[in-house]
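User: Fold this; tokens only.

Assistant: Input:
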Amino acid sequence: MKHIIVLGAGMVGSAIAADMAEKHKVTIADLNQHILEKVKKKHSDLDILPLDVTDKKKLQDHIKPFDLVICAVPGFLGFQTLKSIIDAGKNVIDISFFSENALELDTLAKEKNITAIVDCGVAPGMDNIILGHYNEKLKLSHFECLVGGLPKIKKWPFCYKAPFSPIDVIEEYTRPARYVENDVEVVREPLTDCEYIEFEKVGTLESFNTDGLRSIIHTMPHIPNMKEKTLRYPGHVEYIKVLKESGFFSEEKIDLNGKTVTPLEFTSKILFNEWKLGEKEAELTVMRVTLKGENDQGQTEEIVYNLHDEYCEETGVSSMSRTTGYTATAAANLFLDGLFTEKGIFPPELVGKHEVCFQYFMKYLEERKVYYKKSSRLLT
């Protein structure tokens, strides 16, 4: 049995902690004492720890006794928190969605002789793992990931709920989107190139550009066409564009009755209640990963993985927490079982390239009833 610390007690972080506690001794840390007590009430076997991750010395002191750190903090805290963990010489699994390039910490991770598996959620995460696996089998020409978390009941106007901070969601809507087309890196505004796509059990969804490729732009530069798009119910994009164009996402401070505030802070506060996912609210995660490439026989193959996952009534865990969190716990247990021992920063595609690791992820998720259904066909 190992001692694990999970940083961040939100819906995903608490799901990670509960899953890891099946085999290990787990402490969950957060700045919010109320959230910690709520998690403890639901999972009495977890230890709780009030902790401000922005206090580098306290963070490094507290993580020192643990065998592994799992970082599930909000994106705006992610990079510096990850850097502090690595600097403390601790192995880490990270799911925080930050704008910085984690590969910049590779030299530090190697100097500290530690393993850091980053971006290890559903997307980025499992799509990268699938890509890494098939990059070893095919001469890939195309990679596309379509992914979204959605409420089962559509509530006007946004028809959206989130298991994490609205600021992290808004970040997807404001960060320039990068994709690769005909070997050229293209930068577009997010929320562009809207398409309507049909999904079994859900119906029509709209897809749009977001900055989801992240590490694979750097690790898979030989693939000429790569794109990631976010999925929402039809109409969502239009409402978000209205807010964005009206300045509600601006980070420039304004004076409001003698108080200084940014429109983004105000908007996030409003949207927190509008987008807050109820503890037992039914929701789902939809993802489709499509790869095309040439096999050993010179034929072009198309491989498609479809994920449709829903809130689990048996465990009371949201789908986004399951699909994101259990990918992270698969990586954690994979590492603790000694199946991946390389040192440095590793995006999931560099882990999934190993057959034993890919199969481990798939089996681990299937055991938790998270199913990626594969189909394939020859195009030539």
